[in-house]
Design brief:
Helix 4 runs parallel beside helix 5. The protein starts with a strand and ends with a strand. The chain is built from eleven helices and 14 strands. It has about 350 residues and is α/β, with parallel strands linked by helices.
Length: about 350
């Protein structure tokens, strides 16, 4: 078998989710499963969290549709506003919840609803400082003075902390967000309010509001600037690759470039196409050699070797962050889900 194996502990993901539920103290939990659940497999993760999560969040309508077709019956929030009529129709058919980040997003939803005689649900996205997308307070106020549509049901309002580890920045963002919540409630009544992802949730109860959105924390890792006692969160994924061949006292070089071969050398079937980074981070003699890695050990042919188990360490070795590593390393692997 040419594929690598990603062994994923769904019990770890569930236990991590339960930890964040305990922090939220009765608030709702939105489990973020965008980017195929950070490489862990969105459908399987959603199934494992069915009894824990109140809502799931994805980045794209396509991701929400796939999740729905996999049997997820919980609410699904699409974090990126729709960009065309087709997305609105597909999302409406699957009862997805849209994000609205400006008046044009709302106008698109309204146009499609009136054209086809349908209704949709949405949350307002507020830009409190990240500048990714969302209403500013002034544009929100202008929007709220316009003509609204009863076919577009606004049920929630949310934002995102750009630096949850910075108390001053976080507090300013929260204050602005709460002001926007008050403005929006005059037009739509009480709304489901949420601003905290993993970092915000760890920053104190005042940030939890009505719901928290947990992404990286579900999979056993923390955003930069945060720490927890060892063992509080449990990483969920290990990736394994097979040894293809081994050589004792090889002549010449190890892979591309003039890097001398060591006394012992084994090639394992893991490379760029599998989502590994150039340096590998797995004890390579040299940079990755396209679809192979070269290790300074003798392995038995077909033996499986762990090439990834700690996203933080792997990311540090490759000058990136755990988010990128997780989304990448299981790209071409077969996923195996286990509980112990």
């Amino acid at each position: 078998m040419q594929q690598n194996l990603s062994v994923i502990r769904t019990d770890h993901i569930r236990e991590n989710a339960e930890y964040f539920c305990s922090l939220a103290e009765g608030g709702r939990l939105c489990a973020v499963v965008k980017a195929d659940a950070y490489g862990h497999g969105a459908a399987a993760v959603a199934q494992s969290l069915r009894s824990v999560a109140d809502m799931f969040a994805v980045a794209l309508v396509d991701e929400g549709v796939q999740l729905r077709h996999a049997g997820t019956d919980k609410e699904i929030l699409v974090l990126t506003p729709p960009l065309c009529e087709e997305e609105v129709l597909r999302g409406a058919l699957e009862e997805l919840i849209f994000s609205v980040g400006d008046a044009r997003d709302y106008a698109l939803l309204k146009k499609v609803c009136l054209k086809y005689g349908i209704a949709v649900r949405c949350h307002l996205k507020i830009d409190t400082g990240m500048n990714r997308y969302g209403f500013t307070r002034s544009s929100l106020r202008t929007f709220l003075r316009g003509k609204l549509c009863e076919n577009v049901n606004v049920e929630g309002i949310f934002s995102h902390y750009c630096a949850p580890e910075n108390n001053g920045v976080r507090e300013r963002q929260l204050s602005l967000f709460l002001e926007c919540c008050k403005d929006a409630s005059y037009a739509f009544g009480p709304l489901l309010r949420h601003i905290s992802a993993t970092g915000g949730t760890l920053s104190g109860a005042e940030n939890h509001l009505d719901m928290v959105r947990i992404g990286i924390g579900l999979y056993g890792y923390l955003p930069q600037g945060f720490s927890l006692p060892q063992g509080t969160l449990k990483p969920a994924m290990c990736v394994y690759a097979q040894a293809v061949c081994s050589r004792s006292r090889p002549r010449g070089w190890a892979g591309y470039g003039q890097v001398p071969a060591p006394e012992q050398l084994s090639a394992i079937r893991a490379g760029y196409g599998d989502g590994l980074f150039r340096k590998g981070g797995i004890g390579n003699v040299n940079n990755l050699c396209m679809d192979a890695s070269l290790l300074p050990v003798l392995l038995k042919k077909y033996e499986y070797v762990c090439v990834f188990s700690d996203a933080d360490r792997y990311a540090a070795e490759n000058n990136t962050i755990s988010y990128e590593a997780l989304c990448s390393v299981g790209r071409r692997s077969e996923k195996i889900y286990v509980e112990r």
